[in-house]
Amino acid sequence: MPLPDQIREEKLIGLAKPCFDPPPTGAEEKVLRDSASSLDQDLPEADAPRPPIRPEFVRWLATDSEVATYIDPKGLRVYAATIPGKLDLRECHVNPALTLFRCDFQSEINLEFAETEASTSLILRWPGAFVPSLLLFAARSFSSALSPRERFCCLAHRSRAFCIAPARS
What we know:
This protein has one domain (3-164). Strands 1, 2, 5, 8, 9 and 10 form a 6-stranded mixed β-sheet that branches. A 3-stranded mixed β-sheet has the order 3-6-11. Strands 4-7 form a two-stranded parallel sheet. The chain has helices at 3-16, 26-36, 55-63, 65-68; strands at 76-79, 82-83, 87-88, 93-94, 98-105, 109-110, 115-116, 120-126, 129-130, 135-137, 145-146, 153-157, 160-164. The protein is an alpha/beta fold. It has 4 helices and 13 strands.
């Protein structure tokens, strides 16, 4: 790992430890490492294990302005993880680009009125429903939430709507 990436990773770990009790898990430290890195990560296989990552941990990484200074310009990257609760980014300014790749969501992702200046990539999987396509949002604001309970989920950005239709199980 290049030295600037190591410095960013150490800073992120240093910021995370006093904010969370218990401290970041191994899976959460992997998110910090991946997000600090300027190197492209190997993408996980479809059947890769998905350890849990606290939704409040993802929210903190996505919204804390001090944390954003230590995330590589490639953005916050969460690969093959389970988010066991609601990821509430409602009315938040999401600082880095946000990539959630092959993640299992046990509850909703609320992006209602969230704002971002970066692209957001989502490859989502809810229990019983898999969304197999990559969705890129170059949006500045969203006006809806994603919920695993809905058959069709929509995100609206200004005059354009982005819809997610989970595959039937």
